[in-house]
Amino acid sequence: MSADWSENDRVFMEHALLVAERGRGKVSPNPLVGCVLVKDGVVIAEGWHDHLGGLHAEQMAIHDAEEKGHSPNGSTAYVTLEPCNHFGRTPPCTEALMWAGVSEVVIAHHDPNPTVRGNGCRVLEEAGIPTRVGLMESDAHEQMRAFMHWCEHRRPLITVKLALDANGSVDDRSEAAQRFTSRGCLEKVHELRRDCDAVLVGVETVNRDDPQLTVRLVPAPRQPLRVVIDPQQRIHPQSTLLHDGGETLLMQEDFTSLPSLLHQLADRDIQRVLVEGGPATVHRFLEAGLVDEVFLVHSAAVHQSPVPSNLDDKVLAKAGLSIHEELVWGEERVEHYLKNVNAA
Ligand code: AOF
Ligand code: ZN
Q: Cβ of 31: how many Cβ atoms within 10 Å?
């Protein structure tokens, strides 16, 4: 192992991180992984984990080299995750790399999966293939963060999205439920849903808005699981969620058992949950210290009969969150908060 990275090393790992993105939305509960094979300073092949059950990145890169008429023998593999050494949905990548005659493996991040954890590197080293680990590690961690979090905590990453009017209200009681943010913003929300395994709301939101909670405005390879917290079974029997053919999970737990609810979701391979309201649900997650990330959407609309969110910097700071960046979604300004590292 070594921490001496050349500029070329970085360029190749950046390339591997880039191709890993091609699996976004299709690989969960596996992580996004990318791999490039480099020979004489030139990328001869690329591969990525494209979908669950599909080839792992390293194996796809080896195929790609062969298809392009290049021998992977003697190449350096740049891979964003430590190669696996187990028979899962596919045979071990370590063996594929050995058979291909790869001469060195450069890795961004160790695999926290207990069946891999360090074994991939050990097996490669024992076979005489040197490994270097840690190049662009934080970028890889960011790209695979839901997977990393799930491996480490056995519960999903919790992302909250809440839209507020100019005065911090989440709803206008003077009108029938309607959207008060722009179409551009809604597309961003659908992108966010696409990147989550589940969308969670309280029963109040279902009964007031009758939402679909699906990904419709952007292409989606699959739909998130809908989760409704409904301790007293008050969901309206005609709710769209119950009749549109999609999967909906009604959780009868009350909020005192949020951690157990999240463990149940983790057991169903749910790695990232988008909490879409309403405010009571959001506050319960915040009070339990279970929120990892918040998108606060600020609209210029003004509600006539407001429903206060009671959410501000101070409440978020108390829950261990601080501002990370400001974004623009359509016509709305969005504050993106992240859990402080030491509060994780
Ligand atoms: C790699 N390369 O591209 C990926 C890896 O059951 P499987 O076969 O789908 O394996 C899933 C595990 O393999 C996953 O939890 C993670 O530890 C690792 N993912 N490993 O060498 C890849 N996607
Ligand atoms: Zn593998």
A: 26
- Beta-carbon contacts of 238 under 8 Å, excluding residues fewer than 6 positions away, are none
Q: Whose CA is nearest to atom 22 of ligand 1?
A: 56
pLDDT at 201: 96
Q: What is the pTM of this model?
A: 0.90
- pLDDT tens figures, 3-31: 589 999 999 999 999 999 999 988 999 99
pLDDT in tens, 30-56: 999 999 999 999 999 999 999 999 999
Q: Which of 130, 150, 170 is the last residue of a domain?
A: 150
Q: Which residue bears the tokens 């005659």?
A: 101
| Residue 36, H or E segment | strand 34-39
- The CB of 83 under 6 Å from ligand 1? The reply is yes
pLDDT above 50 for 1: no
Close Cβ partners of 333 (under 8 Å, ≥ 6 residues apart): 297, 298, 326, 327
Q: Are residues 123 and 259 in the same domain?
A: no
Q: Are 254 and 280 in contact (CB under 8 A)?
A: no
Q: Give the residue among 306, 211, 200, 312 at the shortest CA–CA distance from 262.
A: 200
**What is the whole-number distance in angstroms between the Cα of residue 58 and the centre of ligand 2?**
7
Taking residues 190-195, what's their average pLDDT?
95
Contact predicate 162/296, CB 8 Å: yes
pLDDT for res 177: 73
Q: Of all protein residues, whose CA lies closest to atom 13 belonging to ligand 1?
A: 84
Annotated catalytic residues are 58
User: Is it the case that residue 343 has pLDDT exceeding 60?
Assistant: no
CATH number for position 193: 3.40.430.10
Burial call 96-122: b when 16+ CB within 10 Å, e when fewer: bbbebebbbbbbbbbbbbeebeebbbe
Domain residue limits at 279 = 155-339
